[in-house]
Amino acid sequence: MSAPTEPVPTPAVVIRIAAGRPVRAVWVNELGGVTFEVGGTEFVKVGDAHLLAAEEPRLRWARRYTLVPEVLAAGPGWLHTARLPGYSAVDPRWADDPQTAARAIGTGLRRLHDALPVADCPFGRPSWVPADAPPADRPVVCHGDPCSPNTLLDDDGAFSGHVDLGDLGVADRWADLAVATMSLDWNFPTGGPGGFQEILLDAYGAAADVDRIAFYRRAWDGDQPAAG
Ligand SMILES: Nc1ncnc2c1ncn2[C@@H]1O[C@H](COP(=O)(O)OP(=O)(O)OP(=O)(O)O)[C@@H](O)[C@H]1O
Ligand SMILES: [Mg+2]
Question: In the Cβ-directed half-sphere of 93, how many Cα atoms lie within 13 Å?
C-alpha cells in the first residue's frame, strides 16, 4: 500500500462524481483498491465492495464523536467522502521527523478511544481480533487499522483526524496500540526496531504491555496478506 507508481485508470464512477473536476489517484492498497482525490476537496475510494460497505456505516457513526471523514455518497465498490484537513503521517513532509508522526498517532488514538462510546457501538470486534483474546486491559472502540498512513496531521504536526475506519470495532485498546507501534517500524525504519514506540505510547499515555502487544501483533500478522 503506497502512492501509485504508475498511471491508474479512472473508473466510470469517479469520472461521474468528478463532473469535470481534476482527478488524481493518491493511494493503491494491497488488494488493488485505489483512492482518488477529486477537485482537491473530496476523495473516492474504489475497491472491494464488502470492505467499503463495512466502512460507510462506521464512518457515519464515528463522525458523531470524533474527527473522521464525512460520507457524501456510497455505492457498490465505492465510497465518496469529504476531505478531512491534514496530511497522512506517511506524507513526505514527516519523513525526516518520525517523532512528530509517532506523537500525533499516539495522541490521535487516545482521542479516538476516549471519544467513542463502547456501550453505544453497534459494531463487533475488528475482523482480525480473535474471540479468545486475553481479558481486556481496557475495552474501547478501536480504529481497527491503526497503521501510520491512517492518521492525519495538521501543518504543525498535531493530530487532525483518522481515515480508513472499515474495521472499527470494540476490542482491548492494546489491539490498536500493538499494531500502531508495529506500523511505525514499517513506515519509519530509520528508528530501528521499536525506535519510535515509546514516543507513541507516551503521547497515548500508557506504558508498554509487552504480553498484550505480542498477542495482538501475532493476531494481526496471522490475518494480513502482507506487512506494509
Ligand atoms: N476523506 C479524506 N480526507 C483526507 N484524506 C483522505 C480521505 N480519504 C482518504 N484519504 C487519504 O487517502 C489515503 C487512502 O485512504 P484509505 O486509508 O481510506 O484507503 P485504503 O486503501 O483503505 O488504505 P489501506 O492501504 O491502509 O488499506 C489515506 O491514507 C489518506 O491519506
Ligand atoms: Mg489506509
Answer: 10
